[in-house]
Request: fold
Amino acid sequence: MSARRTKHCVPAANCNGDSISRTGASAGGSPRLAAVPSMSPIEARCRAKGMRLTGQRRLIAQVLSEAQDHPDVFDLHRRVAVQCPHISLATVYRTVKRLETEGILERREFRDGHARYERASKKHHDHLIDVETGVVIEFRNAEIERLQEEIARQLGYRLISHRLELYAVPVPAHLRSDESRS
Reply:
């Protein structure tokens, strides 16, 4: 089976999902391109679930695995299109929906009205959202977790799930030092 390469994709990672590196000179004196097998964490989870991965899906999985934020589909499409300019927004959207359905991605809807995505995590965590910049900070606090369990118990319930989102603005540095003294 031969890999289909497209001239629209940059050499660093093509739409077939292959990572490319330059190797020594070939017989003709020019550098050869060699595929470097690399599997992102999301791709590994897809394969473990038996999902078929096209080159475009592999690239989307790789970009999502490298994301340090919670991108929406439009952000993700922009990032993938850098490496594969002809990829459609619909392809990215369908892939994200499939990854969500398979439990590989989790959908988050913060106040900005955009569905954002992150890798499904085995460890629970909460989010603090900077309303000025949109930056999302993940955190875990044992005391908050304990309080939520206690509140549910006091009300006669057993907590099975929850989601905590804190919306905040940064405190100026000169005020932060004053707060820590009190």
User: Anything to note?
Assistant: The two ends are 69 Å apart (CA to CA).
